[in-house]
Structures are given as structure tokens and as C-alpha cells.
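Hi Y.,

Following your request, here is the sequence exactly as I used it, all 377 residues.
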Amino acid sequence: MPASPEVRSARADVREHGDSIVVELTGRWRIAEKRQEFEEVMRDRKPTRVALQMEGVEEWDSSLLLFANDAKRWAGGHGVQWDETLLPSDFRDMLAKMEPAAGSASGGESAPGRDLLTWVGLATHDLALRSRSMYTFVGECVLSAFRLSRQPHRFRWRDCLSEMQQCGAMALPIVSLISLLVGLIMAYQAAVQLRQFGADIYVADLVGLAVVREMGPMMAAVIMAGRTGAAFAATIGNMKAGEEIDALESLGILPIDFLVMPRLIALGIMMPLLAMYANMLGVIGGMLVAKTVLEIPPSAYWVEMQTIVDLSDIFTGLIKAVVFGLLIGFSGCLRGLQADRSAAGVGRAATSAVVTGILMVIVADAVFAVVFNILGL
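Below is the corresponding structure, written out as C-alpha cells. Let me know if you'd prefer a different format.
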């Protein structure tokens, strides 16, 4: 799998040797890209000697010089011995020439060049990098689907079945509770209003149509985004932090084929089934309210609902559910592969996967609303 910009971004890892610390620098150090601050790298550590090592640096510019200068100033401010012996000689010369400029710039309250236009440019550049990473991931998934369609024996069917159990059968309790409550709430709110006009029976139309077309697939998708999408991101992010993904790549195994595709297909298959189950529970919830509050028999409720809900409404919800499932799996796997190699990075990836998944589901639902309205569905 080609490395994304996040994978090759600037990194500073701490290696402790007794009271001494060696900060290993890797990746691409560019002034327009995000990098760690030296104080964040050190945190509460109090060594007696600090050294930098840049053997793993792929590309660098003044960003790396600024980081090294911050490290040197930090060592001087904390009474720590500064060791430059691991740095190349030409880099040490440039670092020495930076001291006068850095000293004159430290007198101001803010660094030069950080005006509004600069912030807008950096934010635009960051957005472009994230967009390119997402497009690259989409392309890799499409190519992986073509490869596996030509060679289905290479697909991880056992992993796919295991993920189908985790994101399908194991999610039934929470889906049951939320869907039943949504049906109850919608029916009760509709009953309060419709009773004023003597149109109690139309609560079946309102609840049935809303649950089948919108609320069933949507609520199932939100639940799966918070449950399964976060699990995908945490699992893959933890594997990345443990260098298991690097081991797969060193063996010639593509992480997209091995980790992503089984999860995408499992969620794409189980989401329409969960949506149908959520539809059933939502309708039952509305039927309970109609029976207890409006005194409408279940048979009358069912017959009235069939007059407004047809197969086109059911298929509309199922189409949405399949797309929602693929989007949730996509966001969870993407954020997992982009996670930092740390426990905090895995947590941030899981949170980002939930937010991204819910956002993509809502945007997709809005697009479906417009498309179905144009098609007359």
C-alpha cells in the first residue's frame, strides 16, 4: 500500500539510555506541514543529556532546523547537557548560524510570518493533504475489490464472517433498544397532535413511512458508527502502533486486502439486515403506542400502514443502509491506518472515526433525499 502523507509525516521518538535521552527524528520535515514541538516530546522528563539523531529523516528543510534549535534552547534553559555529536557536520554548522537569528526573534511576542494569510495557507495545505490521502485510500479499496473479484480464493472469508458476527449479531441488543424507543417516541408525539383532529389512525402512516425510509437505516447507521466504526479504527490503529502493519507489508501482504476489505464487506452485508430489524422494532414500537394510547387494534394499525408503505419505500431504506455501512467501514479503517503510533493516537483515531462516519452518513442521506426526490421515489 503506498504510504500516505500522514504515514511519512515528521516524527520525533524518544529513546532513553539511563539519564540520557536520544530523540530519533524520522519522516519528512517540511515547514508547511505539522510537526511536534520539542516541549511536547520531552513532557515531564528530566534527563542529564539530550541528543538528536536524524538518520531516519527522508526530507527536511528549515522546519528541522527550528526543531533542533528549540531542543538546544530547551536544554540550555533546563540545565541539560546538549550533545550534537550524532548530527551531521553541515547540519551543526547551519544550526550554529541560526543562534543569532533565533535570539533576535525571541524578543517578540509571536514568530514572524504567522499572520492570517499564513494560517489560511497552512490550513488549505493541510486540507489538500487530507483530501489526497482520502482519495488515495478510495482508489486502493477499488483496486483491491477488483483484485479480489478476479481471485476470490485470496479473500479472508474467515475474517469476514468473524466481523459479520461482531458488527451484526453482537449489535442486536443495542439496535433493538434504540429502534424500539425511537418508534415509541415518534408514535407518541404523533398521537398527541393527531388526536386533536380525530386522525388517530394516521399515526400508522407517519410512523411506518418515517421508520422505513429514514429513521430505521439512520439510527442503525449512527449506532454502528459509534460502535463498529470506532472498533475498526481502534483495532487497526493498535496494530499500527504495534508495527503489525509494517510486518504485513514486509511480507508482501497488502493491508488493504488483509484488514480493510473483510471489514468493509462485512459491514456492507450486515447493515441492510440491521436496518430491516430496526424497521420491524420501530413499527412494533408505534403499534404499542397506538394500542395503549389511541386504543387502535394492531390489525387496524397494520392494515393502515400497508396503504402507505410499499416495496419502493423498503428498497429505498435498504439502499441507504448498504451505502451507510460502506461509509462507516471506510471511515473507521481510514482513521485506523492514519493513527499515530501511540496510545493517545489510537484514541484520537477512534474518536475521529465516529465523527467522520456520522458526518458522512448525514451527508449521504441528504444526497439520497435529493436524488430520490428527482427520481420520484
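Residues 203-241 form the longest helix (39 residues).

Thanks again,
Q.
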